[in-house]
Design goal:
The chain has about 210 residues and is an alpha/beta fold. It has 5 helices and 10 strands, in the order βββαβααβαβββββα. It has a single domain, classed as Metallo-beta-lactamase, Chain A (4-Layer Sandwich). Pfam families: Anti-Pycsar_Apyc1 (PF23023).
Length: about 210
């Protein structure tokens, strides 16, 4: 399995002329997985050898602005590059609880109507992931009639046995989220490649005894 990582931004708090806010891309078999989407991520993508249209999954570590402020604009740009197609697979977005509301409200208030289908899978944090005074319970956001207009997706809870959140699994790898401690609840993402049986040349082995 071929994996290639491109750092689009490694800056903290705000972008600078020479250093973008947090964002990196993992390229895997023709797909691009984006991790964090700080302000200026689109510009950094244009400067790179990557194509934004290849992004199929987005992972957000936490809800500080320098990690998410670029996301609504990126979705709008991807939408402009997309023709309406009901059969098109949605972009999967993974991040802390509250991300669905942030995206829906941002796009709703800016009168943006992205043609690109997307789903938001929210990770429910635990209170020990940040200082007690910083913890906010976002479980009630947009859980009334407005929820019907918000993008679809799952709400994922911690698996106590694995001490992690199972995000996705296919024939080649498993992706999990793990809790991190920060000023606000944060998550790290682990991509674990599954064991692959090797290929043996039986005839050659027999000839060698």
């Amino acid at each position: 399995m071929s994996l290639e990582i491109t750092f689009l931004g490694t800056g903290s708090a705000f972008p600078s002329p020479s250093r973008g806010a947090s964002a990196l891309v993992l390229r895997r078999e023709g797909q691009c997985w984006l991790f964090d989407c700080g302000e200026g991520t689109q510009t950094q993508l244009m400067k790179s050898h990557l194509r934004a249209a290849k992004i199929t999954k987005i992972f957000i570590t936490h809800l500080h602005g320098d990690h998410i402020f670029g996301l609504p604009g990126l979705l709008c740009t991807l939408s402009l590059q997309t023709s309406p197609d009901a059969s098109k697979a949605p972009v999967d977005i993974y991040g802390p609880l509250g991300l669905r509301s942030f995206l829906w409200r941002s796009l709703e208030l800016s009168h943006s109507q992205p043609l690109l289908p997307y789903t938001v899978h929210e990770l429910v944090p635990t209170q020990d992931q940040c200082p007690a005074e910083e913890f906010r319970d976002f479980s009630g956001l947009d859980r009334d009639e407005a929820l019907a207009q918000a993008p679809p997706g799952r709400v994922l809870h911690l698996d106590p046995g694995k001490d992690s959140y199972l995000l996705l699994e296919d024939e080649q790898l498993v992706v999990r989220a793990f809790r991190l401690f920060h000023r606000v609840p944060s998550f790290g993402f682990v991509l674990e490649e599954k064991p692959r049986p090797g290929k043996l040349n039986v005839r050659a082995l027999e000839e060698l005894g």
